[in-house]
Structures are given as C-alpha cells and as structure tokens.
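Cross-posting from the chemistry board since nobody answered there.

I work mostly on the small-molecule side, so proteins are not my area. We synthesized flavin-adenine dinucleotide and want a rough idea of how it might sit in this target. Sequence and SMILES are below. Is it possible to get a predicted 3D structure of the two together?
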Amino acid sequence: MKTKKIIVVGGGPAGMMSAIRASQLKQDVILIEKNSILGKKLLLSGKGRCNLTNACDLDSFLKRYSKNGQFLRDAFKRFFNQDLIRFFEERGLKLKVERQLRVFPESNRADSIVKVLEEELQKNKVNILYNTKMKDVIVENKEVKALCLENGKIISLDRLILATGGLSYSFTGSTGEGFKIVRRLGHRIVDLRPGLVPLEIKQDYPRLLEGLTLKNIRLKFSDGGKHIESNIGELLFTKFGISGPLVLSLSSKVVDWLRQDKKVFVEIDLKPALTMEQLDMRLLREFKLNSNKTIKNTLRALLPKRLIRVFLEIARINPQKKTHQITSSERKSLVSLFKGLRFDITRTRPIEEAMVTKGGVSLKEITPRTMESVLIKGLYFAGEMIDLDGDTGGFNLQLAFSTGYLAGEAAAFS
Ligand SMILES: Cc1cc2nc3c(=O)[nH]c(=O)nc-3n(C[C@H](O)[C@H](O)[C@H](O)COP(=O)(O)OP(=O)(O)OC[C@H]3O[C@@H](n4cnc5c(N)ncnc54)[C@H](O)[C@@H]3O)c2cc1C
C-alpha cells in the first residue's frame, strides 16, 4: 500500500480515532485542532467521568439512534463496543460497567481516556497541529486536493477526514464552521437542532423548584395524540423547566413535535408503583393518622417539602387547612396530581445547551461502508457532524469512535 498523506480535522474522539487508525496502517497523518488541547468536549463528558460506551448487544445498540441507526451497522461491524473496551484495556486503562450497562474508566476521570488516545497518537507518529483552524477545502474535478488554514497556509493532501463535531457547548470548539464548509462543497446539511436537551415549561413553578430532584418518577410526554413514556428514573427541575436523564432521553421526539408547532405537555407520575386506588388508600391512611395536622404537614410523608407548596397551589387547597377538613373531592384531585402533575412544554433550551446536535451531513451522501462522501472523492466524515445522534448512555461516544475508526481505515486502504 502506497503511503498517503491523510489530514484529519478535529481533535475530538472521532478525529483522534481516525488519526490513530490511519497511522496504525502506516499512513502519513496530520491531525488539525483549533484548540490548544485535544478532546475538550470529551473531558466534560459523563460529568467529567466519560461514559465512553455501553455494553449492550448490537441490536439494542442500533435502536438507540432514532430511525437512522441502521446506517451504523457497517461501522459497528468494524469497530464496536467490545473493540473499544479492548482498545483501552490493552493500553492499561481499566474500565467498569455501571447500571444500564454504561461503561466508564475505573478512575472515574475522562482525562484518563484522553491520555490513552494522546499516547497512541504519539506512538504512531501523528503530527498534531494545535491552535490551527481549517478555513476551507479545495476540491478539483470532484476530488479533494488541499486544505486551507486560517493562518493562510495551504496543505496538499491525498485524503481528508472531517470530524469537526456539532454545534453545542461551543466553548469546546464545536462551533459549526465545518458544516458551512461542507455545505459550500455541495453537501446537504440536514437541519441542525438540539438533541438531549433540557426543556422549558410555561408554568411559573420551576423558579420555586429549581435544583429539586425527583427520584423514581415516570414521565409521559404527549402532543395531544401521540405520546412517549419513560421508564422510572430521575427528573431535575431547572430555572426554566425540566432536565435530568429521563427528560434528555425523551427530548429528541419533543424537539420534533415542537418544530411542527404542536402543543406538547408532560405528565409526571410521582408514584408509578401505585395505582390510583392504592394511592387513594395510602392518602386516606395518612389523613387518618394526621387528622389534626395541617394538610401541608401531612403531605410531608409523601412529597418533598418544596413540591408541597406547588401541589397545594395547583389543587387550590389552603396549606393551613386541617387534614380532617379536606373534602373527598380535594383528596381525589391530590391523587390525580400525584399520578399526573402536568406542565406545558413551550420550547427546548438553545442548541448551545444540548448534549448533542441533531442533523448534520446527510447520510444519503455518505457511503456507510467507508464514511466517504458520495459527491467528493477522498473526503470522509466522522462523529457528531454526520446526521446521527444517540441516546444518553455512551451511545454518542461509541458513534464517534466507530465512525472515526472506519473513516481512518477506509482512507488508508482506498
Ligand atoms: C456536557 C456533555 C457531556 C457528554 N457526555 C457524554 C457521555 O458521557 N457519553 C457519550 O456517549 N456522549 C457524551 N456527550 C456527547 C459527546 O461528547 C459528543 O457526541 C462527542 O464529543 C462528539 O465527538 P466528535 O469528535 O464528533 O466532536 P467533538 O468532540 O465536538 O470534537 C470536534 C473537534 O473539532 C474541532 N474543530 C471544530 N472546527 C474546527 C476547525 N475549523 N478547525 C480545526 N478544528 C476544529 C473542535 O475544536 C473539537 O475539538 C456529551 C456531550 C456534552 C456536551
């Protein structure tokens, strides 16, 4: 195989893995990163612990990427979760599997992941250009020829792998200029929108509840007709609305409903293990035991203190009312609130606050077996910049590593 000059743009997980794979195959590789460090977003991932993949099987994995997951079958066939786990473990980094099969470094530190990647880049003699920004790409006769840098330099090349990420958390470097360049080259960029994103609600209550976490609840989002329901989990109230793993996971559908101008609301089931009848019995029992206390105090056995105020406000019950004075219709409305505390969703938080970007380089214009552009010979894509996004749980980083690996290998072998 003749040695080719391969340039990779973007020093995130996708770009680093592309550069590693191409250099392992003895190619002459340059990695270009506009920051002064590699993996700035990777360092933030999993709250600084880096949930790098998930240990579930292939079919379950593919279901975690909305409707386009099948596109990844080839990339996963080449380099999947167990390959990624082996990659790190063979280089001395111990990993562990936590609940819902999420994989983390045993060190609980994302920087230990970045360190292994950096060492492997170094070992394979990848030339890393830090503080260097891609400005444009030169294409002649539908074949990629050179890269223009912001500092005025033009580097000729044989193959170009773009892995410039999405549009969120822009301070990490994902500012979207990759999309503009690729669009100029003639590629379609599917609408860029937030994925895994907190939601805003119409009601004023979040201000009172900011920072409150509700555990073991169930969520149901509805657009009036269709609905999606969560498993039992955690919800976090924010200044503007709701967040937490359950909300983020279900937000993708909600984003699309909101874009169709649909009215969207969420119902929180605070006692998913109990039926309405069981809950009513439970309330009756508490009411009997605490008949002379105020209702506000009686509810303490069942609800976090901050939520009691909101609950009683919605149910229009005076918090000072004695428990024995609560009418059966008031009790019934409390039961309904426990099983379906309802808020109107007005919008998502901006894309800047999203964990991933939905949309990107159209999958119709990328060959899934190689990650090469269908329109421009020698141009490859990897990571979040392609029109794919996954659920929380390690699915986005595996996407980045797998597509990166495949692009690096295909660029080397082409
Ligand atoms: C807070 C947070 C936590 C997350 N936690 C997890 C998690 O635990 N598990 C998980 O699976 N996913 C997680 N994700 C998602 C995951 O981090 C991303 O999907 C992943 O980083 C995408 O990798 P990438 O290499 O495609 O892009 P990025 O990591 O965004 O890297 C792109 C790189 O390209 C560089 N670049 C951009 N433009 C240019 C240019 N013109 N010239 C030169 N360089 C350029 C950028 O500086 C950047 O370093 C998280 C995301 C966020 C925001």
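Reply from a structural biologist on the board:
Welcome over. Reading the output above for you: The mean pLDDT is 96. Residues 200 and 241 are 4 Å apart (CA to CA). Happy to explain the token format if needed.
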